[in-house]
Amino acid sequence: MDLGRWINNWRIWSPKVPEIDGVEEPKVIDVMEGDVDPEEVTLENAYKTRWIWYHTILAIEILLTNVLLIAILAILAIKL
Asked: What is the pLDDT of residue 27?
């Protein structure tokens, strides 16, 4: 089966996405826009705080993993 026929068959069998009129676009929050007051409780502040803590924890885990890998490498180098 050639590629052109396959693509045409796929277009026929693929589900059609219905167009919906009168539906508002979802509100997009630009979380990187400007500084925010840390005393103010908003969705934006909560997201930024969680983002910072999450990535801080990931960085610490990566650091510990690298230390363990270097220790394993050193032990193997000494014993061999």
From this structure: 77
Number of C-beta neighbours around residue 45 at 10 A: 15
Which range of residues forms the domain containing residue 66? 40-80
Looking at residue 67, its amino acid is: V
Q: Is residue 16 part of a domain?
A: no
Low-confidence ranges of the chain (pLDDT < 70): 1, 6-24, 31-38
Residue listed under structure tokens 């167009």: 19
pTM (two decimals): 0.46
Q: Which two tokens stand for residue 16?
A: 């059609």
Total of domains in the chain: 1
The answer to the question of residue 7 being in a domain is no
CA of residue 13 relative to chain centroid, distance:
32
Q: Where does residue 30 rank: exposed (0-12), middle (13-18), buried (19+ CB within 10 A)?
A: exposed
